[in-house]
Amino acid sequence: MQTRLAPQYQGTPQGQEADAILRQCVHCGFCTATCPTYQLLGDELDGPRGRIYLIKQVLEGAAPTRKTQLHLDRCLTCRNCESTCPSGVQYGHLLDIGRRIVDEKVRRPLGERAVRWALKEGLPSPLFGPAMRLGQAVRGLLPQPLRARVPPRQGAGSWPTRVHSRKVLLLQGCVQPAMAPRINSATARVLDAAGIQTVVAPAAGCCGAIRFHLNDQRGGLAQMRANIDAWWPWLESGGVEAIVMNASGCGVTVKEYGHLLKGDAQYAGKAARISSLARDLSELLPDLVERLRGRVNPPAAPLAYHPPCTLQHGQKLRGGVEQHLAALGFTLRVARTESHLCCGAAGAYSVLHPHIAYPLRERKLGALADAFADQPPAAIVSANMGCITHLQSGTAIPVRHWVQMLDEALLPAA
User: Fold this and answer.
1) Residue pair 403/330 in contact by the 8 Å Cβ criterion
2) Which of 59, 129, 344, 401 could be bridged to 178 by S-S, CB 3.0 to 4.6 A?
3) Measured in whole angstroms, how far is the alpha carbon of residue 102 from the centre of its chain?
4) DSSP string spanning 154-194?
């Protein structure tokens, strides 16, 4: 794709990066076949190719409008198009650049700005936990749409106390400790059973994705630097072998710290090292299988599995959860069709665009149900907090993290 950047973008880091990405695109349109919003809305401008053209026009000097902003907002950032693209277009990075430029030029309506501010300030806030506990206390009195976003309160479960020579850092996440604390403790127990100690840097907080993808990129980068500072002493001491994320949305973000902070002279090198050590929890499964074989009593009933977009498209990790849990005796079934499509969660997307998010949720639940024509699955499992919460709001079938199922299937140590 030929580009002629406007003077204000020529020679700038974001202009040079966007230009290089745009020149990779060959207009083939393969991306539209796997874009959830294009499939749902049927509008070329609500598909990757159309959004690429919109960003190109802005970079070439065209004035963006509210309509431009809306089409970019509607993207789920699922990055399915990147998995499909034969030219390797880094659409996600281009979208980040385009959204930032458009938001600088197009002022949002007051109500929209208020909602986005509440999300970016509220979700990573220390006050989110107390607010969630209050909501859980009065959950039965809440209107159904709000009740669906407030899961019943659950105990965190025990955290193992054994000390092992092998250690990993775990990012606990911002909303997960309040909404589903058992995911983190289950992770620690499973790793402990395999002889790996889970440690937490107390000062590490939100990965930065929420702010960054709500176009508070400066705030998101500040959170990334804070996490690097929190983790760095552990890396300097050589005490940990990896930084583990059990939420794939956090994982794909931390793995991109090196890219996102490459222009920061103080943090570029540290960010690159952090990204090189970042691991989704599923990447530890090959080692866990060898160490836990014969020590797991899996449920007899098959489980439905939804691979999050941030795992299969963002991190390019496909098939690992199914393969390695099968080696431990679990039976997982993915949707026979559309297992590659987004469920509609996409971080804060389901709050901002429910008219798109909920039809995608129903479509995903329907595709999973089709894989269980004989009887419903015992549970639906996934690997990202956002997907789990979003899918659970549309079904009575339990939706859980796969590590919780593995934790519960562990046999007592001999």
Assistant:
1) no
2) 129
3) 24
4) -----------SEEEEEE--SSHHHH-THHHHHHHHHHHHT
Q: Could you tell me where the DSSP H helices lie in 238-337? A: 248-254, 257-260, 268-277, 285-292, 309, 320-327
- Contact yes or no for 51/97 (Cβ under 8 A): no
Summarised one tens digit per residue, pLDDT across range 107-118 is 999 999 999 999
CB neighbour class for 11 (10 Å; exposed up to 12, middle 13-18, buried from 19): exposed
The Cα 183–Cα 404 span in angstroms is: 6
Q: Which helix (DSSP H) or strand (DSSP E) does residue 229 occupy? A: helix 217-237
How far is it between the farthest Cα atoms of the chain?
70
Give the three-class secondary structure for 199: strand
Full DSSP string of 61-74: TPPP-HHHHHHHHT
Beta-bridge mates of residue 279:
244
How much is the pTM? 0.94
> φ, ψ for residue 199 (rounded to 5)?
-120, 155
Give the tokens for residue 107.
């002022």
Q: Are 123 and 213 in contact (CB under 8 A)?
A: no
Query: What is the spatial distance between Cα 51 and Cα 45, in angstroms, rounded to a whole number?
Result: 6
The region that residue 287 occupies, defined by phi over 0 for left and psi between -120 and 50 for alpha, beta otherwise, is: alpha
Beta-ladder partners of 198: 168
Parallel, antiparallel, or unpaired for β 399-401 and 196-199?
Answer: unpaired
pLDDT digits (tens, 9 = 90+) for 155-197: 888 999 999 999 999 999 999 999 999 999 999 999 999 999 9
Cα distances (angstroms) measured from residue 172 to each of 124, 183, 273: 12, 9, 20
Q: How many CB atoms lie within 10 A of CB 316?
A: 11
Locate 153 and state its tokens.
Answer: 């309160």
